[in-house]
Amino acid sequence: MKFETVTIKDIARALGLSTSTVSRALRGSYEISPETKKLVLEYAEKINYRPNPIALSLKERKSRSIGVVVSEIANTFFSQAINGIESIAYNRGYHVIISQSHESYEREKVTIQHLASRSVDGLLVSLSNETIDLSHLKQLHEKGLPVVFFDRITDEINTHKVTANNFKGAYDATQHLINKGFTRIAHITNSQNLSITRERLQGYQEALKKNNIPFDEKLVHYTLHGGMIYDEIEGEIKKMFSARQKPDAILTASDRVTTSCLTALKAAGKRIPEDISVIGFTNTNIAELFNPPLSAVRQPAFDMGQAATELLIQIIESKRPVTEFETRILDTELFTRESSEHPPIQPKAES
C-alpha cells in the first residue's frame, strides 16, 4: 500500500474552504478570522496534518537540514560529538543527516556529494584518514554551501573550525609518562594526513624535548585506518616488540587506536602495566572499569559538536555573506589511572 500524506488541498476540500485560506490560517495570518483559524487548526490536528518538508524547502529555499560526515558513529568520540550536534540543531529547528566515511576518501567524497544534492543547508565535516584532496569540498564551499570542520580540520578552506587542544593533550600525557620514569615511549597514531595526528605528534615531541629525551622516529607508528582494521594495529604491536630496543610505555592517539591497541597487547600476552604501560586518547565512559583502569586524555566531544553546530547555523542564517571565521580550540582533560603506572622493580633473588 502506498503511503499518502495529508495535504492542504485535503483540508480545504473537507472544510469547504480555498487552499489559500487554509494555507494562511495554518500560518496564523491576520487576514483570516479567529473562527476560521480555529476551525482549520483543530481539523489539521485531528487528521495529523504535517507540512510537507520538501514543499517548504522549495518555497523557502531551505531544507532545515544539516549534513554531518564522520569516520564512524560507533567511535565513542564521534557519538558524543553527534549528541552535541543534535542538541543544538533540534532546538533550532534543524534535522541532522549523519553519514560515515569509514576512513575512506572515496566514500567521504560520494557521501558529501549526495548530501549536497539533497539540498542540505550546510555541512559539518570531520575528515577521513585517507583524505588529501579537498577539491570536492572546495567546489561546494566556493558555490556558497556553508561548511564547518570539527576535530579533523584543514587550513585549505577558509571557514569556521572547532577542535580540541591536541598538542596540550599529547604533551600532558607524555609528560605524565616521563614523570613516572619512562624514557622509551612509543606513539601509535592515525594517518599522517590528519591535523589531529600532526598536533598530537608535536605535543609528544615537545614533552620529550623539554625533558632532554631524544626523539626516535622508530617509536612512532602510523595507522592509515586509525584502528578500524585490527590487523593493522596488531602488526604495529608485533613490529614494536620485535625491535632490538623495545618501548617501556605507549601513547595511543585516538579512541579506535586505543581500544584496538589494548586488544592487540592482550593477544600478544603483554600485561599492563607489568610489561608495558599505556595511556591513550579516548572518550569511553568506562575507562576506569578496564583491567587495569586506563589512563586517558579525554576530549570535550559534546561541547565540540555544539560549538560547530552553532557556528554552522550562524553562517546558514546570516543575511550577508560571512567573511570572518574563527578556529575554536577546546581544552582536553587528563585522567591518570593504573595503566600508566611504573611497575615496581622486583628484587633479585639471593643466590
UniProtKB/TrEMBL annotation:
Domain HTH lacI-type residues, every copy: 6-60
Membrane-spanning parts: none
SUPFAM superfamilies: lambda repressor-like DNA-binding domains, Periplasmic binding protein-like I
GO MF terms, alphabetically ordered: DNA-binding transcription factor activity; transcription cis-regulatory region binding
Tree of life domain: Bacteria
Residues covered by the HTH cro/C1-type domain: 7-50
InterPro entries tied to this protein: Cro/C1-type_HTH, HTH_LacI, LacI/GalR-like_sensor, Lambda_DNA-bd_dom_sf, Peripla_BP_I
Pfam families: LacI, Peripla_BP_3
Alphabetical keyword list: DNA-binding, Transcription, Transcription regulation
Protein name (Swiss-Prot/TrEMBL): LacI family transcriptional regulator
